[in-house]
Design brief:
With 465 residues, the chain is α/β, with parallel strands linked by helices. The chain has 3 domains: 117 residues, Roll (Urease, subunit C, domain 1), CATH 2.30.40.10; 278 residues, Metal-dependent hydrolases (TIM Barrel), CATH 3.20.20.140; 46 residues, no CATH class. Helices cover 34% and strands 24% of the residues. The chain has 15 helices and 22 strands. Strands 1, 2, 3, 4, 5, 19, 20, 21 and 22 form a 9-stranded mixed sheet that branches. Helix 4 crosses helix 6, helix 7 packs across helix 8 and helix 8 packs parallel to helix 10.
Length: 465
């Protein structure tokens, strides 16, 4: 099939027929082949049709002189899967945003609800948390449980029902299994092991928010050791969510643990977002009694996303009753920089934003890496950054048509100005688009053009296993 495609592309070129779109004279960068050269990039339909050092003709030609032409960024950890959120993602260079930590239940219906309506590509795991909430009749309608799902353990029968629900979610093509151990503390460890065993049987990764974090026992090291044990027993593939949130001051140690496990043949990967603050639902188990000791922070280190205010004991108690997103200023800046610079750590936003309120990582993670960490701090090379934002996520999920700037690959492409790309979202005002992302194409369709969103297009497609 690839040979036929290449033959047709060559025939079109020989006949002098113009391509649909040509990105002219850009700095083409492909993190798989290490191509880094000025090239014309031609697109026909939804695929890259040609990459040439010689001029190519297109019905639409974009002068990309001085710009980087790269594979579209793939965000493995994007909770908000809304029209609003997709617009922030596109303006940050993201062409695919996936909800892999919490995941979804009723997987088929979730995909169908977005089919033909999404600005960018989307996808999800079959999630343990939403399955647990449904089976245990959780009253709280937030992203994670705070009532039945945390107050008692699932019975044996409920555990079987939850496992069956997760299994059924894999049938229509959910990308993997999502587990949030920190948010479901009463679930028996045997039931968690069964989820790992299911993943191994179905040859899909397990995407996990581990049980705890920080230096206070049982902290990040013990939490990572727990899921390592499940991998050893089951043979499952493992992806650990936001390593700096778990590791904090111990991030270097956790990265070393993952490296040693990989050296011993275990399929384990991780990710980080480029910020020194985390975020979660204030009503969740992550902020249950004793959180100050566990996290090493206090009320003033919490920022209410809806207003930007720093919390007190009184406001914490009031907001915890109602639930909502709180930003937690608790990640040492040097640990954030360490993870961003590590060539094996993927970039993923953990993005949550609604009505312009949330954490700035939902709007600015990718431009922040390119502007702050590549250009300003030179903490990593541009090619390494692109690899962490495109190729490595595609490889984690065995998606061979994305994350690459190559002939025959999907035409999910991000074009940016390396001299001025930067995030604008802040903790006080997270709802600001990034700058310097000039063109974004999803399946060959412009969703960002001349630095502005394109109205009336919905080329995003569901990504299935």
């Amino acid at each position: 099939m690839r040979y036929v495609l290449l033959t047709l592309m060559a025939a079109c070129s020989l006949l002098g027929q113009p391509y649909d779109v040509v990105l002219v004279n850009g700095r083409a960068m492909d993190p798989e082949t290490n191509l880094d050269a000025v090239r014309d990039i031609a697109i026909n339909g939804n695929r890259i049709a040609a990459i040439s050092a010689s001029p190519l003709r297109g019905r639409v030609e974009i002068d990309a002189t001085g710009m980087v032409v790269a594979p579209g960024f793939i965000d493995l950890h994007q909770h908000s899967q809304t029209t609003e959120a997709y617009r922030y993602k596109a303006m940050d260079g993201v062409t695919t945003a996936l909800e892999l930590e919490v995941g979804v239940s009723a997987v088929r219906e979730w995909y169908a609800a977005r089919d033909g309506k999404a600005l960018i590509n989307f996808g999800a795991t079959s999630g343990h948390i939403p399955a647990l909430k449904a089976v245990m009749h959780e009253a709280y309608d937030g992203l994670v449980p705070r009532d039945a799902g945390v107050n008692r353990a699932p019975t044996e029968a409920e555990g079987r029902a939850i496992l069956d629900s997760v299994r059924q979610g894999l049938d229509p093509g959910a990308l993997c299994i999502g587990i949030g151990l920190i948010y479901t503390p009463k679930v028996p460890r045997e039931q968690i092991l069964e989820l790992f065993e299911l993943a191994a049987q179905r040859h899909v990764p397990v995407y996990v928010h581990v049980r705890s974090g920080g230096p206070v026992e049982p902290g990040g090291i013990a939490a990572l050791q727990e899921v390592f044990a499940d991998v050893l027993l089951s043979g499952a593939q493992l992806h650990v969510a936001h390593i700096t949130t778990t590791g904090r001051q111990e991030t270097r140690t956790l990265l070393r643990m993952i490296e040693e496990a990989r050296n011993r043949g275990f399929d384990i990967t991780t990710e980080a977002y480029p910020y020194d603050a985390a975020a979660t639902d204030i009503a969740s188990e992550a902020l249950a009694e004793g959180w100050q000791t566990r996290a090493g922070i206090d009320y003033g280190d919490l920022q209410w996303a809806a207003t930007g205010e720093r919390l007190t004991a009184d406001t914490f108690a009031r907001y915890r009753m109602q639930g909502g997103i709180v930003v937690m200023h608790m990640i040492p800046d040097e640990m954030a920089r360490l993870a961003v610079a590590d060539p094996t750590v993927m970039i993923a936003s953990d993005g949550i934003i609604e009505n312009g309120k949330g954490h700035p990582r939902a709007a600015g993670s990718y431009a922040r890496v390119l502007g702050r960490y590549v250009r300003e701090q030179q903490a990593l090379s541009l090619m390494d950054a692109l690899r962490k934002m495109s190729l490595l996520p595609a490889q984690r999920l065995a998606i061979y048509s994305k994350g690459r700037l190559q002939v025959g690959a999907d035409a999910d492409i991000t074009v940016f100005d390396p001299k001025r790309v930067i995030d604008r979202a802040t903790y006080d005002n997270p709802g600001q688009y990034s700058e310097g992302i000039l063109y974004v194409l999803v399946g060959g369709v412009f969703v960002v053009r001349d630095g502005n969103l394109v109205d009336g297009v919905a080329p995003g497609r569901g990504i299935h296993r």
